[in-house]
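Expect sequence, tokenised fold; for instance:
***
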Amino acid sequence: MVTASADLMAALRVVRSLGLRSWCIGAGAIRSLVWDTLHEFDRRSPVEDTDVVYYDAEGGPAQDADLENRLRSAMPSLHWEVTNQAGVHRWFAAALGQVVPPLASLEEGIATWPEYATCVGVCLNEDGSLGIVAPHGLDDLFGLRVRHNPLRASVATYRERVAAKRFGERWPRLSISAG
């Protein structure tokens, strides 16, 4: 599915050109591609943003902004959102007033996303092969299941996301748990 998507492959090549050590494109860009394909849609659902996540213990918010600017310059047709998983705990404290422990890796960060089906990322290795980051596996994604991941998101947050993203309307074959 990924290699059949010219847009996603182009985005992966652009992100790879940044030279990050530990990175992927994840969340909605991957989830929507899989669900659109499994629903046999003729055209791809619009993706709100292209989430690029990486892990750099030395990086900070200025680095995220710089990377976003570089991606926008290279591929302005996409709305890029770049997040260093090493700094997510600082965002939780500043934005939500929640104290959470720092993450130790890219995989650990992806493992905390609100729905198990969304906890998936793809990178493009130097040799052109794809790397998959799926700390909870791929069963929910390919099984068209939406379930709450309690590692960092509350049930209320999960329910708000499911409603706001209109999962059931957009992909009617999904099985969506209440949380």
